Amino acid sequence: MQVSTPHSMAEVERALERTERVLPFRGLLFIFWGVLVSKCLFLQWAIFTYDVPIDGWLFVWTPSFLFGILCMAVYARSALGDFARAPLTNRLTRGLWLACGGAFIVFTLESVLLGGISPFLLPGIFAVLIGVGFFIEGMAEGTRLFQGLGLAWWVGAFALFLRPGVNALALLGALIMLLQVLPATLLYFRHRRTSRALTQALEI
């Protein structure tokens, strides 16, 4: 029977502490950005549907994203070191979602500034990219829940492409709340309970 030395126990505790900070932070990012984007989508839908004389890009999207980036920058400062030392799988999935975010920006700029893509096709494109992110992360981490969410996002994307229009904005917002915010919230609290139990076990 292998006996754990104080040094090895300290390494385990440090690794657990890093994971305990990184995973909840990722979960909070999913929740925070999901709620933020959903709010913008619902407001943009309301502006189009009820002919509200407001520039949505100027008064809804821009302030919301500036606020989100500011909050993320302030909160992320304490977790950046832990992200850099996180396991390879976590770093790969972080790069995956950053790549998806970059694709979101490219498609949005192509639609808004160049007019090459109809804005009402963006919800379907975003749903496809989000599905790719969830499915690949699920494959990398062996998480069937994420793989299932990826498939669900692709089904949602098909529905969004089938009937593009103003209502697609509200539907995408609802999909984000149902297929991103809700699962991320449940996983966040489950992870907190699991981490607390592991910490107590190590202290015994």
Proportion in β-strands: under 5%
Query: Averaged pLDDT, please?
Result: 82
Structural class from helices and strands?
mainly alpha
Contiguous uncertain segments of 5+ residues: 6-19
**How many H/I helices?**
7
Distance between the termini: 19 Å
Domains, number: 1
Fraction of residues in H or I helices: over 70%
> Taking Cα atoms only, what radius of gyration do you get, to the nearest Å?
20 Å
Describe this structure as you would to a colleague:
The protein is mainly alpha-helical. Helix content is 85%, strand content 0%. The chain contains seven helices and no strands. It has helices at 6-49, 56-76, 80-84, 88-114, 122-141, 144-162, 167-203. Helix 1 (6-49) runs antiparallel to helix 2, helix 1 (6-49) packs antiparallel against helix 7 (167-203) and helix 4 packs antiparallel against helix 5. The longest helix has 44 residues, at 6-49. The chain is globular and about 50 Å long.
Supply the key terms.
204 residues; mainly alpha; 7 helices; globular
